[in-house]
């Protein structure tokens, strides 16, 4: 009788109900900071514009955060673990697609470089010998090498997800420090500790960036 929107619900209806009843209901079940996740999903899923792969990645990660938070309360008759598994599978599929696109772009860039160099006669001779060398190297590679290459994107994804989660934690810590209403929670860490943590995070991101560049 007091519901904001009555069932049957669409996903849009559910997100609206979450926002409407967040402080009075859902904020007592899961961390209230997850309201930003609800708003992120709502703003992007019903925006009148196409998605790029980065946006899809963000939406999937935010969905996993929300599902994980509710899983601490109940498995909801097995429905929630199944939903979490499906979202995780989508994340892995997206990672494979993005890795394939990166490889394709790298191959295209290499091809363009070879075309430019081929204007020089010496480079033309080098270009003529490269296919046979490449073919020989591919024959010598052990099959396990190709399997490792296929799984490489999962390792990269795991590192980036760890960096993202760390960044979120430090951001929350800093906002709590800067918010006068959060003075009672001030015993967790000092400004200096948060700053040093961000410096370490910056170094980690730099290492990842250099690795991708190589």
What would you say this structure looks like, in words?
With 214 residues, the chain is an all-alpha fold. The chain is 74% helix and 0% strand. The protein folds into 2 domains: 11-106, no CATH class; 148-213. α1 (11-20) packs antiparallel against α2, α3 packs antiparallel against α4 and α4 (79-117) packs across α6.
Layout of SSEs?
Layout: H1 11-20, H2 35-45, H3 53-71, H4 79-117, H5 121-140, H6 143-178, H7 191-213
Helix pairs in contact: 1-2, 2-3, 3-4, 4-6, 6-7
Number-wise, the strands total: 0
- Give the N-to-C terminal Cα separation: 61 Å
Number of domains: 2
Structural class: mainly alpha
* Content of β-strand: under 5%
Protein name: SWT1 protein
Organism: Panurus biarmicus (Bearded tit)
Structure characteristics:
mainly alpha, SWT1 protein, SWT1_Regulator, 7 helices, single chain
How would you summarize what this structure contains?
The protein has 214 residues and is mainly α. Helix content is 74%, strand content 0%. InterPro entries: SWT1_Regulator.
């Amino acid at each position: 009788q007091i519901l904001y929107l009555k069932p049957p619900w669409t996903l849009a209806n559910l997100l609206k109900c979450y926002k409407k009843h967040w402080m009075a209901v859902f904020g007592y079940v899961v961390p209230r900071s997850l309201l930003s996740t609800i708003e992120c999903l709502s703003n992007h899923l019903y925006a009148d514009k196409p998605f790029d792969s980065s946006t899809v990645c963000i939406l999937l990660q935010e969905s996993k955060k929300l599902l994980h938070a509710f899983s601490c309360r109940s498995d909801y008759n097995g429905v929630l673990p199944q939903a979490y598994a499906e979202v995780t599978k989508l994340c892995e599929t997206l990672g494979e697609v993005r890795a394939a696109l990166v490889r394709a772009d790298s191959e295209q860039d290499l091809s363009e470089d070879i075309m430019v160099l081929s204007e020089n006669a010496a480079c033309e001779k080098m270009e003529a010998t490269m296919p046979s060398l490449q073919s020989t190297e591919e024959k010598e590679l052990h099959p396990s090498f190709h399997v490792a290459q296929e799984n490489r994107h999962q390792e990269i994804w795991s590192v980036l997800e760890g960096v993202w989660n760390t960044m979120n934690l430090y951001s929350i810590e800093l906002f709590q420090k800067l918010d006068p209403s959060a003075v009672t929670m001030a015993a967790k860490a000092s400004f200096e500790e948060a700053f040093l943590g961000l410096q370490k995070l910056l170094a980690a991101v730099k290492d990842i960036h250099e690795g991708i560049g190589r």
